[in-house]
């Protein structure tokens, strides 16, 4: 019941259930997802804050069966305020999941400009990490044709615009194949 209340943003119900004796607030479902994970994915800032502020919720180890964290779910869904809140609470889980995608990769792939800008602006976040297919946040931005994110990332000194994926393709070869002319001009 707590996971459902968190997923749908019912703050008063989450508070009521979380305060019951014997309720494990950090419980995991069949996919190892926690109530915090569902609240973060769905952008329920008040519920995320309520859960993240509790001593019996471990944000750092709140990973699902694919190693995604609440921060990763919030970033991939574009919930900027939730991302800000989680970044204040935990800096430790910014590495990739089981396929190597980071919160920045998910935000980039899904085109969430504000979240990409927020994450890329943090000194402790590596913006050029490759996932298991050797894709970087820049190559994801190119693949989906997001001009804003391509410009934001390509202008950085710590981003290798010529990195190669597992097939030897560079970001430029990805964009040439995708037909995003404006992105080609940026590169």
UniProtKB/TrEMBL annotation:
Keywords: ANK repeat, Repeat
Keyword Transcription set for record: no
Superkingdom field: Eukaryota
SUPFAM superfamilies, A to Z: Ankyrin repeat (SSF48403)
Annotated transmembrane regions: none
ANK repeats: 66-89, 167-187
Pfam assignment, any one: Ank
Protein name: Ankyrin
Organism whose genome encodes this protein: Lepidopterella palustris CBS 459.81
Lineage: Eukaryota, Fungi, Dikarya, Ascomycota, Pezizomycotina
């Amino acid at each position: 019941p707590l996971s459902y209340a968190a997923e749908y943003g019912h703050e008063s119900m989450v508070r009521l259930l979380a305060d019951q004796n014997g309720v494990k607030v950090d419980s995991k479902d069949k996919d190892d997802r926690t109530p915090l994970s569902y609240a973060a994915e769905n952008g329920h800032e008040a519920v995320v804050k309520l859960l993240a502020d509790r001593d019996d919720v471990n944000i750092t180890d709140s990973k699902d069966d694919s190693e995604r964290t609440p921060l990763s779910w919030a970033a991939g869904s574009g919930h900027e305020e939730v991302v800000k809140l989680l970044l204040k609470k935990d800096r430790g889980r910014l590495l990739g999941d089981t396929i190597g995608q980071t919160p920045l990769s998910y935000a980039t792939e899904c085109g969430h400009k504000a979240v990409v800008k927020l994450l890329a602006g943090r000194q402790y976040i590596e913006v050029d990490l490759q996932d298991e297919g050797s894709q970087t946040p820049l190559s994801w931005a190119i693949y989906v044709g997001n001009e804003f994110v391509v410009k934001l990332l390509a202008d950085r000194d710590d981003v290798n615009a010529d990195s190669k994926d597992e097939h030897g393709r560079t970001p430029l070869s990805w964009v040439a194949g995708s037909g995003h002319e404006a992105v080609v001009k940026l590169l």
